[in-house]
Design a protein that fits this description.
This protein is of the alpha/beta class and about 280 residues long. The chain has 13 helices and eight strands. It has a four-stranded parallel β-sheet with strand order 2-1-3-4. Strand 1, helix 1 and strand 2 form a beta-alpha-beta unit. Helix 3 crosses helix 5 and helix 10 crosses helix 12. The two termini are about 35 Å apart.
Amino acid sequence: MKLGFYPGCSLQGTSREYNESVKALAAAFNIEMKTIDDWNCCGASAAHSVNKELSLALPARILALAEQQGFEQVVVPCAACYNRLAVTQYELNQDHNLKSNIEQAIEIPFNNHVKIINVLQFINTYIKDKIADKIKKKFEHKVACYYGCLLVRPHKILEFDRVEDPTSMDELMKTIGATPLEWGFKTECCGASLSIARTDLVGKLSGKILKDAADRGAEAIIVACPMCHSNLDMRRPQIDEYIGKEISTPVIYVTQAIGLAVGITPEKLGLQRHFVKVNIL
């Protein structure tokens, strides 16, 4: 199977370490992924609230290029990108007139049948069964698995995991020796794209998430979304101000946690790029 890869904008910039860890993990398991040629921004997170046609045309062009380049599946690590591509695919498959209009706009014909998979689906499909044989050092830490808003909603379209209490990331953490904690903020909003416009709100929303995880004894928060990582990691001054104390709990991508367990170096996983020092290596 020819496996495609869509990095999206975040993995090329603010979440470069996520990109590095996804690719390092794939290489460790001899999985070849090819980046979609001439990919564009998917429109997350503002296009769908500004221009309906644009919000569909941007993801549609990505899907059309993937199909044109022969990919049957495309790995989309960013939860926001994954959400926009999946929602667009669903909407265009539901409305053939709309699909025709979008095809004319992007000037690329396509069937809209490429399978879109998020990073957890990618790991579960291609890596999970092989992890036990590759573990060099178990990741024996208490972790709070944070899924955020966009990885599991809307369930009718994504049909991925449980909406209120997802468990797929928790199960992956168990395979590397971690202890996932029961907690109440798995799918609460971190403030998402308000990170620049309303840092005060991000401080409050992300602060509640971080405090609950820390109060329950989490040694790390595990994420699968660059936006969630940015808010929980980069906005720590605003979070600490809201909480009223400093919390040093690091935020780690699921690919980084698994990478550490199978012996990939912290540098190759991009752990040195985090704002909050990852001190549980």
